[in-house]
Amino acid sequence: MRLRLTVGLLCLALGACARKADMIISGGMVWTGLSTGAPHAGAVAVAGGRILAIGDSAQVWRYVGSNTQWIQANGGLVLPGFTDGHTHFIGGGFQLASVDLHDAATPQEFIRRVKEYAKTLKPGEWISDGRWDHTLWRGQPLPRHEWIDSVTPANPVFVSRVDGHEALANAAAMRAAAVTKDTPSPPGGEILHDARTGEPLGIFKDQALDLIARAIPDPSPDQRDSALARALAYAASLGVTATSHVSASWADLASYRRFERAGRLTMRVALYLPLDSWRAVAETLSHSGRGDDWVKIGGLKGYMDGSAGSRTAYFFEPYSDSAGYRGLVQYPEADMRRWIGSADSAGLQIAVHAIGDRANAILLSIYDSVARAHGPRDRRFRIEHAQHLRPQDIPLFGKFGVIASMQPYHAIDDGRWVERRIGPVRIKTTYAFRTLLDAGGRLGFGSDWTVAPLDPILGVYAAVTRRTLDGKNPEGWVPEQKISVGEALRAYTAGNAYATFDEAKRGTLAPGADADVVILDRNLFTLPPDSLDRARVRYTIAGGRVVYRP
Question: Does the pLDDT of residue 232 top 60, yes or no?
């Protein structure tokens, strides 16, 4: 018996030694993500879609076979594939083919771009997305439907502000949605009206967005698939190998699964469906399961409030530039408590949008009370954005085990104007990356694409430097909240893997982990902080397959 056991172990050992790599990445600095420390020179061997070995050249050489593919990092940085912890991913694919208003610096340029894009469409086709930003315009006027009615007579328009919490509809869109001066603002939303005539201006906020959105025809499966194809190619070029697609629909899920069956998926996705559909999600998981390593239902996404840019984020104290106004909640607190409690009873993970300090405080209280009522388990509650926090609420993230799913690029964008909204005191704990980490909180970073650029390198740059987009804060806006390169990369890799219960599979480079790898053209750890945004992706590898090279 002992002889048989010895022979068996010898055979297993020989088999392991005999396994050859499908791919070896060499000539670079390897950052495994197991700590926030600096990378080391080394090589990575890949086999069967997983990491086979990591070490120096001599250690990895034994895995070389006649069919091994060699990839040279040429002194660049080799690290786990980036995960974007918060995207509206297929919407991003639609945006890539739509009008782009995000950097239209004047109302005149806004109108010109809408006019030129309308010329490319057939009569009756909708113009949507857009991502305009009125904070770029002197005096910050909100647009009105009259600006674009004459240049879009045959096309309904519903173009969103960059944060997605307010949008402009032209007269054709309001007619299509049967919105008039007598249409009331719904709970959790607002329709702006002309103070003189009472007519709608064309601006709709938060829950009022649905008044127009419900009139827009749903994309066909082919249109949705085309958008996904565009988004996947773009994500691969930026090193993104996984994402949490939040506010997803069942149609989005069907599109990802079509791509997976066709072998066209180049990125892993966890979808978060609407919180108020918790019962349907729970029944689906009971009958069909969550999914697999490429496409799965991650959980549920809800909304507490809106955004600071649209003045719909919910605060304890009024906005500094809007006397007496504190923002709004999108749903009554009682509804949120009921939905979150029911979803938690069903064993579902919950992620909820909260931006204002009062919205965050209420949500933390709900999470705590639900956990106490239902007993201990590994919930991994998420707060999406967690932008403006009271100092006393920050330690609760670590205490309650709540993940702060944040978007660092928003900080260098909002830093241009948000102090005028909320004053000099509240900004001290705005985008509080450093304080959250020091208090034992977990960070997961993302982009909120299409609200902000998808590029994770820009997110790292933003978290490390906090240099605002207007160039007015060269040493960093609220600089005490800066974090290190290693900490920012951890939030884009291991932090996001933890946020979707995938830390045993990905987020680090370790033997047995999924071979999701990105190779950058330079070492971020040795770059001056203000040069971090110059790094570019050389290779993106997903599941052991090269999905992007320039």
Answer: yes
Cis peptide before 450 (omega within 30 of 0): yes
Residue 18: pLDDT band with limits 50, 70, 90? low
> How many helices (H) and strands (E) would you count in the chain?
19, 21
Q: Which pair of tokens denotes residue 413?
A: 């964008």
Is the separation of the CB atoms in 532 and 464 below 8 Å? yes
Q: For residue 240, how far is the Cα from the chain centroid?
A: 11
Residues 6 or more apart in contact with residue 196 via CB below 8 angstroms: none
φ, ψ of residue 42 to 5 degrees: the values are 175, -170
Q: Which of 524, 544, 546 is nearest to 39 (CA)?
A: 524
For residue range 320-329, list pLDDT tens digits in order.
988 899 999 9
Fold of 95-213: Diaminopimelate Epimerase; Chain A, domain 1 (3.10.310)
d(CA 454, CA 470) in angstroms, rounded, equals 20
Structure tokens at 221: 């499966």
Mention every residue, 6+ apart, whose C-beta is less than 8 A from residue 61: none
Query: How confident is the model over 138-187, as pLDDT tens digits?
Result: 777 899 999 999 999 999 999 999 888 999 999 999 999 999 999 999 99
**Is residue 493 within 8 Å of 516, Cβ to Cβ?**
no
Please name the residue ranges forming H helices in 427-480: 433-438, 456-465
CB 157 within 8 A of CB 173: yes
Cβ atoms of 344 and 374 closer than 8 Å: yes
What contacts 333, CB < 8 A, 6 or more positions away?
A: 362, 366
Cα→Cα distances 51→55, 75, 237, 252, 282, Å: 11, 20, 21, 30, 34
Output the pTM of the full model. 0.91
What is the CATH architecture assignment of 1-81+508-550? Roll (2.30)
The answer to whether residue 250 scores a pLDDT higher than 70 is yes
**Domain locations along the chain:** 1-81+508-550, 95-213, 274-507
For residues 459 and 488, the answer to whether their CB atoms sit within 8 Å is yes
- Assess contact for 338 and 319: CB atoms under 8 A: no
- Residue 393: DSSP 8-state: G
Quote the tokens at residue 145: 């439907």
Contact 394, 432 (CB under 8 A): yes
Domain range 274-507, CATH class: alpha beta
Best CA proximity match to 206, nearest among 296, 26, 69, 330: 330
C-alpha span between 456 and 445 (Å, rounded): 9
